[in-house]
Recover the amino acids of this structure.
């Protein structure tokens, strides 16, 4: 399959613990290439819009508050089968259920402070990439 792209966020629990490099190393070792990256402080409005699909979930407000509790690193990752490859290296949403060797098993603190977000489909990857990046900011 040709190389394609996915979207990743290194979450505030990871940036707070100075794990940006550790997470990125695991992504790169899994065969993904960082073709765009920036460290940002998300606004509440931005986080609410980004996670809009979860608006009715009981954890929505806590999720948004957590995602704006510190800086995040938003990234575009490129590689063969990038969406699934990234999901595999991230591991299960809840680190307690994640496989050994995955980012969430090795680094995450809880289901909320789970260190990374990754797109769940090619369609959502395109939407999420466009939410944070202009085309000229992505250099493959
Ligand atoms: P993420 O991939 O960023 O997408 C939504 C996030 O909601 C998810 O990762 C989790 O970190 C967070 N979350 C918090 N509580 C829950 C929960 N009970 N079930 C699923 N996701 C949760």
């Amino acid at each position: 399959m040709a190389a394609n792209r996915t979207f990743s966020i290194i979450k505030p629990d990871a940036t707070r613990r100075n794990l940006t490099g550790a997470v990125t190393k695991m992504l790169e070792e899994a065969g993904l290439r960082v073709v765009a990256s920036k460290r940002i402080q998300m606004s509440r409005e931005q986080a609410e819009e980004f996670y809009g699909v979860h608006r009715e979930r009981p954890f929505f407000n806590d999720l948004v508050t957590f995602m704006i509790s510190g800086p995040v690193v938003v990234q575009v990752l490129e590689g063969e089968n990038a969406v699934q490859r990234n999901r595999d290296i991230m591991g299960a949403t809840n680190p307690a259920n994640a496989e050994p060797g995955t980012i969430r098993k090795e680094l995450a603190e809880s289901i909320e402070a789970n260190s990374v977000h990754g797109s769940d489909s090619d369609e959502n990857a395109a939407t999420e990439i466009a939410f944070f990046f202009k085309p000229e900011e992505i250099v493959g």
Q: What stands out?
A: The chain has a mean pLDDT of 97. The chain has seven helices and four strands. The radius of gyration is 14 Å. The CA atoms of residues 14 and 20 lie 6 Å apart.
